[in-house]
């Protein structure tokens, strides 16, 4: 699966920090059914790899690993069945390692220098991270201006309220966020929030 396909599959990628509160399969089924098939499971908890393995078997789910910081985590994520890899930043070593696996790769950028290093490595699609803390929409607009062909998946600090303006931006293909799956939400509440996110329009 190409990164382009991953980024176009849904307007919003739920960023999941799984700690055992919900059964991963039931959670994935809820999100897919609501219209959010692309699921980023962050490698921040001990449950993450097992969850990727379980969720990868859910019909219609496109499961990837987030917070991938090094080659070891990349290979663990691939072995668990991740179909795409998300990193908070961009390094040459991890970019080359992911390229050797053929998996879709969405590394994080926050500066023009980051983007230029990514372009040098053959990348044109990036996560803009942390989106709000890096200056929000004005920063993304200014940053994307010199890079006409580059497209972004802003993530970090985006809320249900701010999501529509991010998605209206021409340089934005999709956005990531955790607001659909917060601690204490029931599966029904998650399904409702995910359905609202899935119905958001893109530019
Ligand atoms: O760990 C990573 O590599 C990440 O992907 C970080 C996440 O993108 C943000 O934590 C999600 O941001 P919120 O929607 O503000 O919760």
Automatic annotation (TrEMBL):
Keyword presence, Repeat: no
The family this protein is said to belong to: Belongs to the KHG/KDPG aldolase family.
Superkingdom assignment: Bacteria
Signal peptide limits: none
Species the sequence originates in: Sphingomonas glaciei
Catalytic activity entry: 2-dehydro-3-deoxy-6-phospho-D-gluconate = D-glyceraldehyde 3-phosphate + pyruvate
Enzyme Commission number(s) from the entry: 4.1.2.14
Subunit description: Homotrimer.
Pathway note: Carbohydrate acid metabolism; 2-dehydro-3-deoxy-D-gluconate degradation; D-glyceraldehyde 3-phosphate and pyruvate from 2-dehydro-3-deoxy-D-gluconate: step 2/2
Broad class of enzyme this protein falls into: lyase
Gene3D superfamilies with a match to the protein in the record: Aldolase class I
GO molecular function, one term: (R,S)-4-hydroxy-2-oxoglutarate aldolase activity
Protein name in the entry: 2-dehydro-3-deoxy-phosphogluconate aldolase
InterPro entries: Aldlse_KDPG_KHG, Aldolase_TIM, KDPG/KHG_AS_1, KDPG/KHG_AS_2
Keywords in alphabetical order: Carbohydrate metabolism, Lyase, Schiff base
């Amino acid at each position: 699966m190409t990164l382009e396909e991953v980024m176009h599959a849904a307007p919003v990628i739920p960023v999941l920090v799984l700690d055992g509160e919900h059964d991963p399969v039931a959670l994935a089924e809820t999100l897919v059914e609501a219209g959010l098939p692309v699921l980023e499971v962050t490698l921040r908890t001990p449950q993450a790899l097992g969850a990727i393995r379980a969720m990868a078997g859910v019909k219609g789910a496109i499961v990837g690993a987030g917070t991938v910081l090094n080659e070891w985590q990349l290979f663990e994520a691939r072995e668990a069945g991740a179909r795409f890899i998300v990193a908070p930043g961009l390094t040459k070593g991890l970019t080359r390692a992911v390229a050797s696996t053929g998996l879709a790769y969405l590394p994080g950028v926050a500066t023009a220098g980051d983007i230029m290093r990514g372009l040098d490595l053959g990348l044109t699609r990036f996560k803009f991270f942390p989106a709000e803390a890096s200056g929000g929409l004005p920063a993304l607009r200014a940053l994307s201006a010199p890079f006409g062909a580059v497209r972004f998946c802003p993530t970090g600090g985006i809320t249900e309220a701010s999501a529509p303006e991010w998605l209206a931006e021409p340089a934005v293909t999709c956005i990531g966020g955790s607001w659909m799956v917060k601690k204490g939400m029931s599966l029904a509440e998650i399904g409702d929030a995910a359905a609202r996110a899935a119905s958001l329009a893109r530019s």
